[in-house]
Amino acid sequence: MNSAPFKTLVASSLLLLGSASQVHASELFPTLAPRKTIGVQVKIQSFTATDAEQIKAADFGFVRFGVWTNSLERSAYQKQISDAFAAARSAGLPVLMTLRSTAALTTAPSGTRELAAAGETFAHSVSVLERSYRTQLVAIEIWNEPDLEKYWPTGNFETTFVPFMSAMCQSLGQDAQQTPLIGFGFAKAPSAGTASTVALNKIVSEHPKCLSAISYHPYGLSGEQISNAQAFIQQTFHLPGVITEWGVPSLASKGGVQGQASQVSTFIADVQKLNVALTSLYEWKNSDSGANERERNFGLLTADGQPKPAELAVKTLLKAQQ
User: What is the pLDDT of residues 162-205, one digit of tens each?
Assistant: First the structure.
């Protein structure tokens, strides 16, 4: 991992140096090309080389996809992962890999020893995947929205999260990592007094070399609110904030496909002005498997690959910054 002084220097530079901060973004995430700080989320089960070429042509800098550690023992799942990395590699796209478990980490969530053991096991999975794919990785993101019960199936977040993550950080500290580690993909930006802020304060203070950035998902936030979140994260944790998921569905209630394009354009303009070191849009294609109409319509493309107005809007903005 990066040293704590280096991370602090980078974080301060990102906030203070205006347009020059893009250089420091590349230092924080060296796999990213200059000014290629905006990526898009894909699903490993459907991501193809054709998708990768189209994403590259749209001037995205990377792809984000999730890997579930509780499925790693299945050979078919291992192939899905390797195929997804191969598709990204075919287009020269680096990968932001988000790791979590979709199953409870332990059957005894009230036991600190059991949570610590689970954290050590998780750290082993992180290390194995990092060694396998490090040349393609932008960063490894630990977890996705643990502040929502749906994505933290191990019991009470306030009592189980810190013991698990502290053990993971402690274990990883014994095994040198070349890939930046970011966390923890919070559904809401950390703010004063929230459970995520309390947890982060403890983890960052006890393991200052564990994380290179704090990741969160600012759905529904204005540019001013995102700016405030970025400042709070820097001032509180002395680390930069990065956005690993944001999107808007193309629903009639949101203005349809044109409304989606307009809101995506505004968001990208906002994060470019703020010089956020890394931003990932949700998502490349509509998801037919979504649980409801909202979840099925976040794509910049339709499920069968037809561009929506948002795709052209993104491409125009990204090409303009080159």
Answer: 999 999 999 998 665 789 999 999 999 999 999 999 999 999 99
- Torsion angle (degrees, nearest 10) of CA 227, 229, 232, 235: -60
Determine the straight-line distance between the first and last CA of the chain, rounded to whole angstroms.
Answer: 30
Pairwise CA distance, residues 183 & 181, whole Å: 7
pTM for the model stands at 0.91
Taking the C-alpha atoms of residue 302 and residue 314, their distance in angstroms, rounded to an integer, is: 15
| Domains along the chain with CATH numbers | 4-320 (3.20.20.80)
User: How do beta strands 279-281 and 137-142 pair?
Assistant: unpaired
Of the candidates 112, 79, 113, 185, the one whose C-alpha atom is nearest the C-alpha of residue 142 is 185
Return the half-sphere exposure (C-beta side, CA atoms, 13 A cut-off) of residue 151. 16
Q: Is 110 in a helix, a strand, or coil? A: coil
From the number of C-beta atoms within 10 Å of its C-beta (0-12, 13-18, 19+), residue 48 rates as middle
